[in-house]
Structures
1.
Amino acid sequence: MMHAGLEHYLVVSFLLFSIGLIGVVARRNLLVIYMSLELMLNAANLALVAMSRFNGNLDGQVLVFFIITVAAAEVAVGLALIVALFRKRQSAHVEDLTSLKL
């Protein structure tokens, strides 16, 4: 039976981050961009936890706990902005962000 080594976790983390980066660069819908950003955060979390586990300390896991806490606050603010944009323009495209200026 083959055990997953550190390089396996880092490859999966790199693939997830790459998928998220492609989603941010190639898409115009704010919800898809937002989900891609969250995917990139989770890829970084996976890399931190894997490195922490294989190095034998808890520093990376503690950092992931704080990242998840900040991401929860980011979700609340980001979704509020997307809802405000959708209510004003009836679309969630990036080009409509300039319409939220005062």
2.
Amino acid sequence: MNTRLTQLAAGVLATVFSVAAQPAREPRLPNVAILATGGTIAGTGATSTTTVGYKAATLGVDALIAAVPELARVAHVSGEQVFQIASENMTPGHWLQLARRVNELLARDDVDGVAITHGTDTLEETAYFLDLVVKRSKPVVLVGAMRPSTSLSADGPMNLYNAVALAASPDAAGRGVMVCMNDQINAARDVTKTNTATLDTFRAPELGPLGVMESGHPTFYRTTTRLHTSATEFDIGPIQELPKVGIVLAYAGSGRVAIDAMVAAGVRGIVHAGTGNGSLSTDAKAALVEARSKGIVVVRASRVPGGTVARNGEADDDALDFVAADNLSPQKARVLLTLALTRTADTHEIQGMFRRY
């Protein structure tokens, strides 16, 4: 009996030591797809101090990934070059192509999130478009840089690291499309480029950031309340070309020339970036009324960078059959109007979309 007990004890000890000797399993790293579109983050300059006059969109996605080996600590990454352009050349056609690819990737079980490198000039518009048409709750993060890859203290590598870490985080799911730069996390709807050159240019001046990145981990302080991603009604599946929508900027003496030119160009919608609370000059109002009589949807926005455009405030929107932009910038009002027109031309329904999204 003692011999039997001794054998059992020896077997138990052997099992314990065997288990203890096995290396601990590392947690599974998320899979993040990096979609590259060009921009300053992929740019190069003549010298290490060249921060203006550089050439954007010269490096490919593989070079961007290779420059940040630390990405392997937070995710298994794959890279894909979708476009190679400076973002001032981004078009609605590019948006459709990019959005379709994002939806394809997020539908896969082996993709946990997507990070998109993008030029900063139109980054906020692309982000908001994706916020309205991406149909999954998995994280989608846009990232850029204010200095080219060759400059001293280039911000691109750290921005990319944080963006991938954010896209890999389960805490980032369900928060809509985000922009991650300069250690800040901002909602696509709220963020805007506020400075032509500084590293902290992307901000949400009125509503503030969603959170911050700390040592590769997101800390969130708020969430967005407007509907986004899978909660929106927009479906780009059958769309081959988006409706043409233009923006007209108001200024002292601007008159109606630009509005008439938009009408002649065949736009389906006009966003009027008015003065103050979306005010209309006499000439602009007359031209916009004529445009509306031809079926063109008119949205009153403001060139002022903060505040809301109140419905029936500086214009009788009910009588004029216009739409008020809420607190969307003219460029983001254009994004929403473009998508709204894929669903309806009814201004009452479109006004409801400006309240929901």
3.
Amino acid sequence: MIDLSVHVDGLRLANPFIIASGPPSTNANVIARAFDEGWGGVVCKTIVLDSTKIVNVSPRYARWRVGDEIVGWENIELISDRPIETWEEEFRTLKMRYPGRALIASVMEEYRRHAWHEIVERVQRAGADAIELNLSCPHGLPERRMGSAMGQSPELLREVCGWAREVARVPVWAKMTPNVTNIVDVARAAVEAGCRGISAINTVLSVMGVDLTTLRPEPTVEGYSTSGGYSGRAVKPIALRMAMEIAREMGSRASLSAVGGIESGDDAAEFILLGASTVQVCTGVMIHGYELVKKLERDLRAFMERHAFRSIEDFRGYSLRYFTSHAELVAKKHGAKSGQDTAWSAERFIEQVDRESK
């Protein structure tokens, strides 16, 4: 029998598939729909203490199509504009209806310790099984030192994660922005501050394109636009690379919830092979609907059957061992060609090249 269940940071999920924070998790009705369809968990749309400051514009999406297929999606939508009191009531209702499903609260606040204390305490009192700190939204809020403005600074991120951990009684995950030079630096800071898990990645800051008829950037709001978050299948290679780097650095010190371009069980398998315990899907749900989880499960089971894996842990992180440095790749290639041991060290190879070039 193949077992898709996952045990991570004290949580038990029926499968590794989680709906990521965003439009598919914008209220209790759609979260309930996700649980009814069989998703292992849901991260709600990001909550803030004062929702009156959140004002969305329209249109706020732009799509990149190859033929009839959407491969990239840009989004300038902000976090939830619903009052935290509404979310608290909906959390209590959801936990009564779905006690066995993982309900994860995504939260964001300004650079104020007491605000982070308050929002963490309120969502966990309302029933959140875990908390994901949104330190990574790339648009609309960084000018207020929120979102990626925090996630791009290891020092700031370490401080904010520490504030959340001071009052948290449930697991805390930190969601990483890809819009950094080295994602390992910020992930390490979150773990050192006490976060149990890392979610990666959030969207890639982007400009979708310019309409060559109107000469206006897209999406166009009254003729103007702004850069936004890019997601969808096109970001998967970026997400895989960053997931690999985080997993290699963190090892068993923190769990990894991978996000970015996942639309099939094979996509999910790749991230799990690179160390993820769970995978999150947002744009894929927007394109294919909540029933996508059934296909994800079928695909993942088929992959596991082909390789005789019986559980997620049987292959989680399996492929990390095959990453090395470029210098080591050169040494292995040279060793294979010369019939020598392919583990021949890069240092010895470089020394020989130097000698032969003189």
